[in-house]
């Protein structure tokens, strides 16, 4: 075996060890390709995710051999429900690939969750939603920004097959439509400048009349009864 082939195998083995230890890795775009790892380019092109490409239909024995067993999470049904909702919120162009998708918000997720359950939001719902979002972020199915309350699909979704995407499209059609997202990165509305309005200028004779004529519009100051002051302060 040539020296180049040995170095290539060592390179691939090193990156596979890293991925098996830490899951999908975010690296510089100029990182060389690795056999068996799919490259998922970030939306802004500043980084690339390396995601394991597992054999189609691989059973537990193969996954164990690759040291990539299925991810076990708490409350799997609730977590799967939140993942489905995030797909509906973030995969807005369903004729395109799911990755990288668009940014969704916690407000959207809460709205769809309440509609999916067919009841008004309850106090415990937010705890369940946040817990599921954090579990899905830890396993790289989602990229959840806790501070901004915003979410994107994670790099693992790049491994979904055409059959998976077809099933998800059908699922999204049966979910309530999310409201439009209001993102933290959206620019604020531009204020209307006072200088854009024409300045009204009274003619000289009108100014003179207003200065000399007695005012018949002055009204006595209205004084609220003492009992209303407490209500106004509340």
TrEMBL record:
Low complexity composition-biased segments: 194-208
Chain spans, region Disordered: 176-234
Polar residues composition-biased segments: 209-224
Origin: domain of life: Bacteria
Protein name: Uncharacterized protein
Natural source organism: Kribbella pratensis
């Amino acid at each position: 075996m040539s020296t180049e082939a040995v170095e290539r195998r060592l390179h691939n083995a090193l990156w596979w060890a890293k991925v098996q230890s830490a899951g999908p890795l975010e690296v510089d775009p100029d990182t060389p390709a690795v056999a068996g790892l799919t490259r998922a380019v970030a939306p802004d092109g500043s980084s690339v995710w390396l995601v394991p490409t597992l054999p189609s239909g691989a059973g537990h024995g193969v996954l164990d051999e690759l040291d990539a067993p299925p991810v076990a999470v708490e409350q799997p049904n609730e977590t799967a429900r939140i993942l489905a909702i995030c797909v509906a919120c973030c995969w807005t162009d369903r004729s395109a690939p799911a990755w990288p998708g668009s940014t969704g918000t916690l407000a959207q997720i809460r709205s769809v969750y309440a509609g999916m359950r067919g009841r008004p939001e309850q106090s415990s719902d937010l705890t369940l939603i946040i817990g599921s979002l954090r579990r899905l972020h830890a396993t790289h199915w989602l990229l959840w920004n806790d501070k901004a309350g915003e979410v994107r699909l994670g790099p693992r979704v790049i491994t979904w097959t055409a059959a998976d995407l077809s099933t998800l499209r059908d699922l999204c059609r049966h979910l309530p439509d999310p409201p439009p997202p209001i993102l933290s990165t959206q620019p604020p509305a531009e204020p209307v400048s006072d200088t854009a309005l024409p300045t009204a200028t009274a003619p000289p004779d009108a100014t003179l009349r207003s200065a000399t004529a007695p005012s018949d519009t002055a009204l006595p100051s209205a004084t609220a009864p003492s009992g209303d002051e407490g209500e106004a302060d509340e």
